[in-house]
Specification:
The chain contains 25 helices and no strands. It has a domain of 85 residues. By secondary structure, it is an all-alpha fold. Helix content is 71%, strand content 0%. α6 packs parallel to α15.
Length: 510
């Protein structure tokens, strides 16, 4: 077909690939009966499994990769029918994938870092002292707070989860706390700090796209993020009381402490490398050299302190740390990491962004957003549309930065016409885009957290309280008008900062 005048997709055409993907993911991927962390839902599904067709679908777990590839093929077919050549469609896929290459490199380096930090005794020392200091009653509260402070100082949820988060997962496992709860607390704290830090990429990107000013944007977010974090911390404190005074957990802790001490030289000085990496990242050194330097430092410490050979360091960086200590709890805690462990996640990101690239190139994503915008007839509905679009892009495209850039470009003029200060838009972009990205398994952020923490995103989703509560508080403010700032009569503030990102080019990843 001619490439000169490709046709504009209709709403129906734009919806077909999206609905196709949702159906595949629902019946082929999200087989909760095969996920131990959320096996509580199994009885609910038993009725569906008895149905012949649904039963056969739910009985087999398929990774998200194949459904995403199939949905990409459907989107490309309809793009071809609209008049786009294969060359153009392929360019759309490549453009989408290119935006995630930085994230893929970071994933590989984090895998190497985890492997060398376990071999060197850094992670085991963090777990050891964490088990000694933290009690089950305060652990979730402490984990969320610690991650919030580290992410606030560094501006990076990824670096926080890849360093402090990995150790906290081990501590939580040793204390006998369900890992989805632990991961939820880690993610809530990490994304609070990421969202509120002036050092964060997304915190700088949102006001840039919306046309507001950085610190005005951060102050405006306090109204939604502050109450959300307070509620989250109260919930973590309340849940913590259910895990206090467990004698069995105390016995498990002793076993873990003895097992770790038998395998590694444990010393408080081994806690310094994570602090050093946090300081380096906080001084705005790019994430890739900072994390790679941390991985190299871990290898050096493994040789000097633990007496490991260079071959052991290379093996841990490549395939992860592996040991047979004779203590199942210790082996399960520490046998992980390595570049190889991250490769399935990288493949998932590539498949997901290829799908999003076709939707973007053929205009299907724009059509869906425009349809939503036509329904926004009040301040509340405009804010709901903005947040909903950001969440939808996290699911469909799926990339955190695009969930900020695309609705920011599309709805900026609508906010101006409605007489709303642009900091309302930038706040909505972060409330809907930044915070929901780690809750989607095939989103770049969700895939990263899944690979790093070892917990399926839909398992920790119910316990990532900040990420769930914040968008609803933002919606509530939009409906009631509370904290919604109007432009002054002269229109000042509508162009506080010249927009610096008018394309979907991805900035440096966190």
């Amino acid at each position: 077909m001619s490439e000169n005048l490709p046709r504009k997709p209709t709403i129906l055409v734009a919806l077909i690939p999206t609905l196709f993907l949702i159906v595949l993911l629902t019946f082929c991927v999200i087989n909760v009966t095969e996920i131990p962390e959320i096996a509580i839902l199994t009885p609910i599904l038993n009725g569906f499994v008895r149905l012949p067709i649904l039963g056969s679908l739910l009985s087999v777990y398929i990774d998200p990769h194949l459904p995403l590839i199939a949905a990409t093929a459907v989107a490309a077919f309809f793009g071809w029918r609209l008049g786009y050549s294969w060359k153009t469609l392929q360019a759309g896929m490549i453009d989408g994938i290119v935006m995630a290459l930085t994230a893929c490199i970071i994933l590989m380096i984090v895998g190497m870092l985890i492997g060398t930090w376990i071999l060197s005794g850094i992670v085991p020392s963090m777990i050891y002292y964490g088990l000694l200091i933290l009690s089950p009653k305060i652990f979730l509260f402490a984990a969320c707070t610690i991650c919030a402070l580290v992410a606030l100082a560094t501006g990076s949820s990824w670096s926080t989860a890849g360093t402090i988060g990995v150790a906290l997962i081990g501590v939580g496992q040793g204390l006998g706390i369900p890992l989805p709860l632990v991961a939820g607390a880690i993610i809530s704290g990490s994304y609070f700090g990421d969202k509120m830090s002036p050092l964060s990429d997304t915190t700088n990107l949102a006001p840039s796209v919306a046309g507001s000013e950085l610190f005005s944007h951060i102050r405006h977010m306090v109204w939604t993020t502050g109450p959300s974090m307070l509620i989250a911390l109260l919930l973590y404190i309340g849940i913590g009381f259910f895990y206090g005074g467990d004698e069995m957990a105390a016995g498990n802790i002793e076993v873990l402490l003895d097992g770790i001490a038998a395998q590694f030289t444990v010393h408080w000085l081994l806690l310094l490398p994570p602090v050093l990496v946090a300081i380096v990242v906080g001084r705005r050194l790019p994430a890739i050299p900072a994390l790679f330097g941390g991985a190299v430092l871990g290898g050096i410490i493994a040789i000097v302190v633990q007496g490991a050979a260079m071959a052991d360091v290379m093996e841990s960086a490549h395939v992860g740390y592996g040991v047979e200590s004779g203590i199942a709890a210790v082996d399960s805690l520490l046998n992980r990491g390595g570049l190889d462990e991250m490769l399935p996640t990288i493949a998932l990101i590539i498949c997901a962004l290829a799908f999003g690239g076709v939707l973007e190139k053929t205009g299907m994503l724009t059509i869906l957003a425009e349809a939503l915008l036509r329904m926004a007839r009040s301040t509340g509905s405009l804010i709901a549309t903005t947040i909903g679009t950001a969440v939808g892009i996290n699911i469909l495209v799926p990339d955190q930065y695009l969930s900020i850039i695309v609705p920011g470009r599309m709805y900026r003029e609508a906010f101006q016409h409605a007489g709303l200060d642009p900091k309302n838009l930038s706040r909505c972009l972060e409330d809907g885009g930044t915070l929901t990205s780690p809750l989607v398994p095939w989103n770049t952020c969700g895939a990263f957290m899944w690979a790093t923490l070892g917990v399926f995103p839909l398992a920790y989703l119910p316990f990532a309280f900040l990420n769930l509560i914040n968008p609803f508080i933002s919606l509530l403010y939009g409906m009631t008008g509370w904290t919604i700032v109007k432009l002054d009569p002269a229109g000042e503030g509508s162009e506080e900062v010249e927009i610096r990102s008018t394309s979907t080019e991805k900035p440096a990843v966190e």
